[in-house]
C-alpha cells in the first residue's frame, strides 16, 4: 500500500489548471473510473462554486468542459452520486440556506437538468451522505432546517430516490437506527449501506459503524475489533470490495487527522495503517473516489481544509496493493488467538513460538512460551538461496545494499550495516542448501500449537 502525490498538469487544448483550492466538494468517476468529475465546494477566495472540472486519470490532466443547461446554485457539503453516465447532485448549503434541490449532470452531453421530483422529499440539509444500490440513491442524516423550527436539526432519517421515476420515498426501517449525525460517510457493499462516524450534535464525535440491509431494511450496529477507529467527522471513506478505507477528518479545530484505517466489513476488524511516505497532510472535508476498474485497487484524493481553515488543492492516488495479503495474515492471527482462548477455557496447554528475523544474513531468534510463560530463547540460522523481494524503504539506493533492523538479546534495536556481497559469511549463506522461507509481514511469524495436557 502506498500514497502517490500527483503533479498537476494543464490540458493542451484548455487553460484549466484544475479546480483550485477548495473543500466540501465532491468527486465522482465515469467511463470505468478514468474520468473524475469534481463539482462545487468552498474556494480560496471565500466563495462557493458550481464549476465542473474533469481529471483524466490516464493522461493526468485537468479540463473544464463547456456545460449546457441551468447549473445548480453554488454550494458545498452536498452529495453527488454516479448513476451510469449521470451525476445526481442533492442538497448542501449556499452559505445562507440549506438546500434540498435535485440536479442531474449528463456527462455524455455535458448538460445540466433540474428535475421535478415526486413523492416525499427530504428536508433541506447539508453534510449528509448518499450512496447507490441498484438504481436507487439512499440519503442518510445530515443537518439542516425543518419547517416550524428555528434551530439547526441533526437528522437520522433515510430517504430513497428512484432514479428512473425520480420519486422520493422516506424509508421505514427496523432495528436500532444510528444516532442523528452529520459529517459521516455512507458506502455500499453487497446491497448493504454502511454508515461510519460523524458528529452527533455539537462536539460529540462518533466512530461507530452501522449497516442497513436494503433487502430487509433492518439496521444493525457492526461489532468491531482490533485497532478501533478514533471518533471523527469530515473524513473520507472509499469502498474497495469488502474493505472500507477511512482517511482524515477532525475531532476539534486543533485535532485534524491524516491517519488511514481499513475496515474489513466481513469480519468487523479495523486496522490502522502504519505511517507511509508521501501521505497527505491532516485535513477534513476532502473528497475521494475509487478509480476501478480503470485503475483497479486505487483511489483518487483531492483537496480539503487544514487546521487554519485554508482550502487545499493537492492531489493523491492511494494504491491498495498488498492489503489482501495483510488481511489474510491478520485473519490467521485472529483465528490463532481464538484457538488459544478456547484452549485456555478448556484447560488445555498452549504452546507458542515467536520467530523474529535478527539480521539480513538469515539469523532468527525463537522465543517459546507455554501458557504465556517463557521457557527458552535462542538464535538459529534459516538459510534461503532465494532472497524475498524488498520494498523501496528497505534499500539504500546509493549503496544498493539491504539495510534492516537487528535486535540484540536484550531486545534493543539498532541499524544494521549494509551487507557486503563479497563477505565470506554472506557467500557461505548464499551457497548453502535450498531451504526457502517466506518473509512474513514486519519480519515476524507466529506459530501456535494447541495440545492437550
Automatic annotation (TrEMBL):
Location of the region described as Disordered in the Swiss-Prot/TrEMBL record: 1-23, 402-425
Biased amino acid composition, Polar residues: 402-416
One Pfam family in the UniProt entry: Kelch_KLHDC2_KLHL20_DRC7
Keywords annotated in UniProt: Kelch repeat, Repeat
Name this polypeptide is given: Uncharacterized protein
Species the sequence originates in: Brassica oleracea var. oleracea
Amino acid at each position: 500500500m502506498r500514497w502517490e502525490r500527483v503533479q498537476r498538469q494543464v490540458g493542451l487544448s484548455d487553460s484549466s489548471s484544475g479546480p483550485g483550492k477548495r473543500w466540501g466538494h465532491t468527486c465522482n468517476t465515469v467511463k470505468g473510473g478514468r474520468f473524475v468529475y469534481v463539482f462545487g465546494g468552498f474556494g480560496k477566495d471565500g466563495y462557493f462554486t458550481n464549476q465542473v472540472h474533469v481529471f483524466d486519470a490516464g493522461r493526468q490532466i485537468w479540463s473544464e468542459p463547456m456545460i449546457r443547461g441551468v447549473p445548480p446554485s453554488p454550494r458545498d457539503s452536498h452529495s453527488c452520486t454516479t448513476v451510469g453516465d449521470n451525476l445526481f447532485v442533492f442538497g448542501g448549503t449556499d452559505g445562507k440556506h440549506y438546500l434540498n434541490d435535485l440536479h442531474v449532470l449528463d456527462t455524455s452531453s455535458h448538460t445540466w437538468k433540474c428535475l421535478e421530483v415526486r413523492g416525499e422529499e427530504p428536508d433541506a440539509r447539508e453534510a449528509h451522505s448518499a450512496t447507490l444500490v441498484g438504481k436507487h440513491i439512499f440519503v442518510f442524516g445530515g443537518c439542516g432546517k425543518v419547517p416550524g423550527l428555528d434551530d439547526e436539526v441533526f437528522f437520522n432519517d433515510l430517504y430513497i430516490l428512484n432514479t428512473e421515476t425520480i420519486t422520493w420515498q422516506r424509508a421505514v426501517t427496523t432495528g436500532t437506527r444510528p444516532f442523528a449525525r452529520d459529517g459521516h460517510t455512507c458506502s455500499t457493499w453487497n446491497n448493504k449501506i454502511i454508515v461510519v462516524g460523524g458528529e452527533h450534535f455539537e462536539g460529540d464525535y462518533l466512530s461507530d459503524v452501522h449497516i442497513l440491509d436494503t433487502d430487509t431494511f433492518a439496521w444493525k450496529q457492526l461489532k468491531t475489533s482490533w485497532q478501533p477507529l478514533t471518533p471523527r467527522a469530515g473524513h473520507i471513506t472509499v469502498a474497495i470490495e469488502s474493505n472500507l478505507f477511512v482517511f482524515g477528518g477532525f475531532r476539534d479545530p486543533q485535532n485534524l487527522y491524516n491517519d488511514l484505517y481499513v475496515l474489513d466489513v466481513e469480519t468487523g476488524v479495523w486496522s490502522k495503517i502504519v505511517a507511509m511516505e508521501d501521505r497527505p497532510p491532516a485535513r477534513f472535508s476532502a473528497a475521494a473516489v475509487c478509480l476501478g476498474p480503470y485503475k483497479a485497487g486505487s483511489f483518487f484524493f483531492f483537496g480539503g481544509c487544514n487546521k487554519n481553515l485554508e482550502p487545499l488543492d493537492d492531489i493523491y492516488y492511494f494504491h491498495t496493493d498488498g492489503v489482501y495479503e495483510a488481511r489474510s495474515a491478520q485473519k490467521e492471527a485472529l483465528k490463532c488467538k481464538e484457538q488459544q482462548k478456547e484452549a485456555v477455557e478448556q484447560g488445555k496447554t498452549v504452546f507458542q513460538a515467536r520467530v523474529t528475523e535478527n539480521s539480513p544474513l538469515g539469523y532468527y531468534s525463537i522465543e517459546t512460551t507455554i501458557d504465556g510463560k517463557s521457557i527458552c530463547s535462542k538464535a538459529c540460522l534459516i538459510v534461503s538461496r532465494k532472497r524475498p523481494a524488498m520494498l523501496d524503504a528497505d534499500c539504500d539506493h546509493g549503496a544498493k545494499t539491504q539495510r534492516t533492523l537487528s535486535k540484540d538479546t536484550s531486545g534493543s534495536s539498532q541499524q544494521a550495516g549494509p551487507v557486503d556481497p563479497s563477505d565470506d559469511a554472506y557467500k557461505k549463506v548464499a551457497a548453502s542448501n535450498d531451504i526457502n522461507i517466506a518473509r512474513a509481514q514486519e519480519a515476524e511469524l507466529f506459530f501456535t500449537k494447541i495440545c492437550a495436557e
